[in-house]
Amino acid sequence: MVFWERDWWRKWWEKRQRDCCECECECSWTKAAVWLAVLAVTGGVLALLILAFAVVKPPTASADDALLTRFELATSPNATARPPLQLLSYNATVTISLRNPNLHYGITFGAVAAVFSFNGTRFDESGTVPTISLAARKETTVRLRVGDVGRALPKLPAAGATEFAKQKEAGVFEVEVRLDTVMQYKGRKTKCPLVVICPLSLQLVDPDVAATAFQKTKCTILRAKIFGC
């Protein structure tokens, strides 16, 4: 009987040791999983805070819609002009979207000056847009409408007139819209010169006929290399 009791006691002790070991192992794995989850959440929050406050992104822009209802080139009847002046008659409307991708910082744009060019020659600089305030993760649209009859283009070279004739025959004109402004991030003192360049392929359409669909075009953003911009 004594031997049986000793054997029972030994088996009971060994079983208890095994149970304790399994419990400790399970507890260790559970603690490790909890700590890993806490670290992952903390790391995600820190990454989000860094992205929101430390990383400042430039605005983005796209030409969402555009319409060209007149684009005619003629030679000036003034025979004394050397070289002869090229006269441009045009009507164009462009809608450009500006977006602020930042999670925290708002952006203020100063007065915006718009320039329209064909083949490297500016033909309209009359477009202007007042000051724009754009909150974080927000978007706004800028609508430009320009037009004139017989505007002189003294800087249009012969190659430009040839290119105009070629594009007229194709029915699609390559026009560039450039926006010049100064932007400032909310909470920062630095004022950053900013240029938005939108190359557009515009099909000449009859204003009395429904316009063709315009393909949305991504614009290029140029920023000054200044600290804080």
TrEMBL record:
Transmembrane segments: 34-56
InterPro entries tied to this protein: LEA_2, NDR1-like
GO CC aspect terms: membrane
Pfam families (alphabetical): LEA_2 (PF03168)
Topological type in the membrane: Single-pass membrane protein
Localization annotation: Membrane
Keyword Transmembrane helix: yes
Predominant localisation class: membrane
Key word Acetylation present: no
GO biological process, one term: defense response to other organism
Superkingdom assignment: Eukaryota
Keyword annotations of the record: Membrane, Transmembrane, Transmembrane helix
Late embryogenesis abundant protein LEA-2 subgroup domain sequence ranges: 95-183
Protein name: Predicted protein
Taxonomic source organism: Hordeum vulgare subsp. vulgare (Domesticated barley)
